[in-house]
Amino acid sequence: MPDSVRIAVLASGGGSNFQALVDRFRRADVRYREVVGVIASRERAGVLERARRAGVAAAIAPPAATRAEMATFLRRALDGWRSDIVVLAGYMKLVPETVVRAYWGRILNIHPALLPSFGGRGMYGARVHQAVIEAGARVTGATVHFVDEAYDRGPILCQWPVPVLAGDTPESVAARVLKVEHRILPAAVEALASGAVRLDADRRVHWVREWFETDTFTNREG
Ligand code: GRF
């Protein structure tokens, strides 16, 4: 990773994870990190208003694009911003394979459950938390993983548990998980940006050195 790391975000929703990244990397004690742009998968996504207020470049993916057109669009935007890291933050579409390959080991996704449970095609938003409650799970959480060609399947970088309480609704679980997402996503991006973690050629997540000011659940020894 270069010293000055440029971070692009793909989003479809309200953009609170985008905002957490912007806020984290604009703190005075953080240097050489910049959220350089956000691509929204639909023109009415709330993340676009956040980007406007934050002065971050924004692009809207063509709604009726074929996979090939979407791949061309994403590459043009991401390459144009000279992106070093790409973060899917509530992005509802599959990233075309050619884009995944071009940015292999540099695309992260945040999922509001403990993958591999409660993930995969169709598992997004309130559906995830509804499934967690219906399954009677006592613990859910958030996962940051490297993106590969399938939904929510890439190698896991870190996770954090969140309790499921009696009387919880999908909304109350979502709110509790979202608070954790806003902490571990910026931390995971910083770990990748600083070279503390990388994805090896054999798809193994390799922690180069201790990371995370808290004992976030990663795969490091000890
Ligand atoms: C988050 O819960 C994220 O995990 C999921 O979609 C939600 C996006 O929220 N993929 P926001 O748009 O970042 O507020």
Helix content: 25-40%
- Taken in chain order, the helices and strands follow as EHEHEHEHEHEEHEE
Radius of gyration equals 17 Å
Number of strands: 9
Count of distinct structural domains = 2
Q: How would you describe the overall organization of this protein?
A:
This protein has 222 residues and is α/β, with parallel strands linked by helices. It folds into two domains: 1-103, Rossmann fold (3-Layer(aba) Sandwich), CATH 3.40.50; 111-143 and 158-222, Formyl transferase, N-terminal domain (Rossmann fold, 3-Layer(aba) Sandwich), CATH 3.40.50.170. Helices cover 32% and strands 23% of the residues. The chain contains six helices and nine strands. The chain has helices at residues 16-25, 47-54, 67-80, 97-102, 126-134, 170-193, and strands at 5-11, 33-40, 57-60, 85-88, 107-111, 139-146, 156-163, 197-199, 205-207. The strands form two sheets. Strands 3-2-1-4-5-6-7 form a seven-stranded mixed beta sheet, sandwiched between helices. Helix 2 links the parallel strand 2 and strand 3. Helix 1 (16-25) packs parallel to helix 2 (47-54) and helix 5 (126-134) crosses helix 6 (170-193). It is globular and about 50 Å long. It starts with a strand and ends in a 15-residue tail after the last strand. The model has no long low-confidence stretch (mean pLDDT 92). Bound molecules: 5-O-phosphono-beta-D-ribofuranosylamine. 5-O-phosphono-beta-D-ribofuranosylamine (GRF) binds at residues 11, 13-17, 89-90, 110-112, 124, 178, 181.
